[in-house]
Amino acid sequence: MEPERQRSGRTLKKGRKRSRIPSKLVGAAEAMRSRWDLEENQQPVAKKARLSTILFTENCEITHGQLCELLKYAVLGKSSFPKPSWCQLFHQNHLNNVVVFILQGLSQLHFYKFYLEFGFLRKAFKHKFCLPPPSSDFLADIIGLQKKQIIGNLPKAMEGALPSASSKVSINLQKDPIIQKYGSKKVGLTSYLLTKEEMETYHFPLQGFPDCENFVPTKCNGSVTDNSPLFGLDCEMCLTSKGRELTRISLVAEGGDCVMDELVKPDNKIVDYLTSFSGITKKILNPVTTKLKDVQRQLKMLLPPDAVLVGHSLDLDLRALKMIHPYVIDTSLLYVREQGRRFKLKFLAKAILGKDIQCPDRLGHDATEDARTTLELARYFLKYGPKKIAELNLEALSSHQESQEPKNKAELVQQLNTSVLECLDSVGQKLLFLTREADASALSSSQNCQTIKCLSNKEVLEQARVEIPLFPFSIVQFSLEPFSPSLTEEMKKRIKIKWTEMSTVYAGPFNKNCNLRALKRLFKSFGPVRSMTFVLETHQPHLCIQYEVLEAAQLAIESLDDILVEGSCIKVQRPVTELTLDCDTLVNELEQDSENRGTIYLSGVSETFKEHLLQQSSLFLGLKAVILPKDLKSGKQKRYCFLRFKTFSSAQRALSILTGKDWKLKGRHALTPRHLHAWLRGLPHESRLPGVRVIPPPLEQEALQMLKVDHPKIAAWHWGRKIGKLYHNLCSGTLCLILLPGTKSTHGSLSGLGLMGIKDEEESTTPNTCL
């Protein structure tokens, strides 16, 4: 077989000069184009394949199906496939090759735990995105091999029925997050109500909180029992000059009857009706005279004293209503998911109840239908109990719905029934798959795939040097030994603590008669503050400020350390713990991360900042994108932003202007990419007392494995360098992806990370100066 494989390789090389993938020119993904992306009207000087600067997802998580979209589009282009829904690939016909490196056994957690060791990867690839935990065959998912099996053959639970004993998948129920939270026994309604602590954690409006001063209580203060009535609630919102405001409310009683369905006219000027979600248009809302205070009064009259409100992300609905209610069941939290993620209502409706809601052929969502669905989901959970729900294995079912729903029958066949292998076959090309012999995959036995099985990672690497230039599309898989479950749990806790401590500063000493209000205003000017406390343990008072973003903490240190403030020369520094000892090095390396090059952070921006920026765009040449973070709950724009420029010099010039006397903003070069914020939000909240050891005694012996060559820390450094050498030998115009798939086992799951770039992409404009 070996001579035949080599002949095949020579034929491919002889049949093409540069392994160029035949296709037509690619355009931008208009349907998903970001309104912040300013490069859309700029034509490149030279026709080079290039990727967009911003990925079009709020949480920066790309499904395996969406990744498959990009790979198929890279092979055939827009003449045969829709443009990727999540990124822009310009001049696809100038791609020469596609190479995918897979580091099996590693996850996003490993990447940021060993960030300093992954030197080449973080500097070479400026596009990064989150991946969900892998399914049973990650490779088949991203190539599209399993799509045919999914159509028309969904599991029983997707039809709304509980699985029979013969159809149950072998899963460890004790590790299921639903069982871990509620136990396995059926309990009454009151056990599923959110506690006050949970309501505070998930930003529900609560009595006495400063951001709820004008909120109206429902006056439901009766004694709740397991027989208390349930009411399904759903609201639709629009975007006004003051943020999100209510446009429709639906309330459904336990029997399924709609007892309230009202359109509401906002108090402020509407800037976006959000019709695709709400179904509300200007024409519908024009004759409406009902105001927020009217529905508040009506809701208070309708609800009995012991009413329990049920909804999906109910905190948003109550905030839109500007009302406070103490007894709630939130179905997005009731059906617990791993790592703080949440199932969509549409998915739960199909998986649990067997019903289709929020159908694409309708204009927006039906608030009454959504309210009734949440009510049915709550009743279903109460009826069958947590064990039966856990046996459905919702996490596995959700992987069947990763691909975006097709818009028509032709697109169904095109997107789901065609794999990357079939795309390559249609243009007379083969896929190269290099892997260890022990790592089986559906891809190995597929037609039109040249599989080379090796005995070790080292042999995979050696074969890759020889074989990659001979094929237009290559997948190279390295298998690395993962951490043990116990050490992985410790890593998850410490990585969250580390970023929290790096974003925290201590400032002082201050005079005992200092102006505390002025000090708070000063430190808030550097960025969003999560908490600020007065430290009185010291001889003179100090402040402890925990910022939401790392840039704000760094800016405070750089601006105020050893500066005279309120009559005192203060010191501004991070807490010194075993997790922050290398933070100076880490900050310096984050500045050199390719995704942060040419990006600046600004604090103190107003709601009209973008308009002013565009009006004076001639001052900011090379501006590619304006990233305006919004509060996840209120939808309001936060008072900081990120600006991305084409070159470092353009970013440096803009920073000088924007922090000057005319704009009066505070800023510095960026340290954290967008996907990192989304990933950190999903990690469990951890806190600790000073002095906790890095390695607890039971794990000390295991920690000594750090010194071994096959440990992930050493492997990250070793294989990062090896892939770097392979990358430098790739031809110009090669689309290269590095995938850390994540892990999934009975002990839990870890989300993955993807990095991608095109070799020599816009090389002539890439700055030589590092941040």
From TrEMBL:
Alphabetic keyword roster: Exonuclease, Hydrolase, Nuclease, RNA-binding
Gene3D superfamilies, alphabetized: 3.30.70.330, Ribonuclease H-like superfamily/Ribonuclease H
Pfam (any one): RNase_T
SMART domains cross-referenced by the UniProt entry: EXOIII, RRM
CDD domains given in the database record: REX1_like
GO molecular function, one term: exonuclease activity
Keyword Nuclease among UniProt keywords: yes
Highest taxon in the source lineage: Eukaryota
Domain RRM: start-end pairs: 503-577, 598-668
Compositional bias (Basic residues): 8-20
Region named Disordered: 1-20
One GO term describing the cellular component: nucleus
Listed PANTHER family: RNA EXONUCLEASE 5, RNA EXONUCLEASE REXO1 / RECO3 FAMILY MEMBER-RELATED
Protein name: RNA exonuclease 5 isoform X1
Taxonomic source organism: Odocoileus virginianus (White-tailed deer)
Gene: REXO5
